[in-house]
Amino acid sequence: MGRFVVNRLASVVAVLFAISVLTFLIFQAIPNGDPALRLAGRLATPQQVQDVREQWGFDKPIYEQYGKTMKLILTGKVTSYTQQLNVLDEVRADAPATISLVTGAAVIWLGFGIVFGLLSAISAGRWLDRFLTVLALVGVSTPVFLLGAVMLYYLGYKWHLFPLGGYVKLTDDPWGWFTHLIMPWTALSVLFIGVYSRVLRSTVLDTLGEDYVRAARAKGLTERRVLVKHVLRNSMIPIISLFGLDFAAAIGGGAILTESVFNLHGIGQYAAESISRLDVPPILVITMLGAFAVVILSAVVDVVYALLDPRIRL
């Protein structure tokens, strides 16, 4: 197991380096035109453009530009040129809202996805299976912005059941934090619940026909023990894979629509505002951080794989 973890960590380092190079090339080297002018913005003065060129090393060879860009990001000295604010400071300030949103929604979509998928599998072909299938299709087909707008209008504005968006810090007001996030959690998790329940249903049905499941039943184990210890454990591998990637993608900016609809002022909303202002430095940093999050959590998922199924270690 130790050797497996070390090999996986080595591959993570290689992939992170490759991602940093590709991200740098996409944002600074591939597009035509002066990268300093793109970073400084269309309304920048000649002096501002020159300052950007010197800060990012655009007057140096391409490998020196890459090294200087990575140094600026790692040391937290990247500045937004439309607002003159430190990008990493802004990301850190917005991170609690995004982490609260994604973590709460992840617990909901993973829990309900497993429950609905398992219920649908053990009642395959019956009315409960058909009902849950319809719910899953509706959830997958409903856009987040539409569901969020409907919830805001009816549950927030018309019926006054929940606050109309915004984010409250957990340390300031725990109950306010919870009530402000109920609707965003629900809106973000509905799509994933539908996907996870369908994937788990298919996997469980395939696993139920395996020889080791029939052998467990022949030993006299209860149906509940067979489902939990043998069927569900082996069926969770694709769910773990999806969960790790979806969680990382949502943290890295995948919750942009949800944060924008509910005005949560998280990393996703910060990225959306930077795109609307054509402010390149925040987009560069958030893109790289999001890619890093996906790679790192993918490695964590692989380790969890090995714990669930020892054959993967080989």
Automatic annotation (TrEMBL):
Protein topology in the membrane: Multi-pass membrane protein
Pfam families: BPD_transp_1, BPD_transp_1_N
InterPro entries hit by this protein: BPD_transp_1_N, MetI-like, MetI-like_sf
Keyword field contains Transport: yes
Domain ABC transmembrane type-1, first and last residues per copy: 95-305
Major location (coarse): membrane
Record field: transmembrane: 12-30, 97-119, 131-155, 175-196, 235-257, 283-308
Subcellular location as annotated: Cell membrane
Full protein name: ABC transporter permease
Keywords, in A-Z order: Cell membrane, Membrane, Transmembrane, Transmembrane helix, Transport
Record family assignment: Belongs to the binding-protein-dependent transport system permease family.
Superkingdom, taxonomy of origin: Bacteria
Keyword Transport assigned: yes
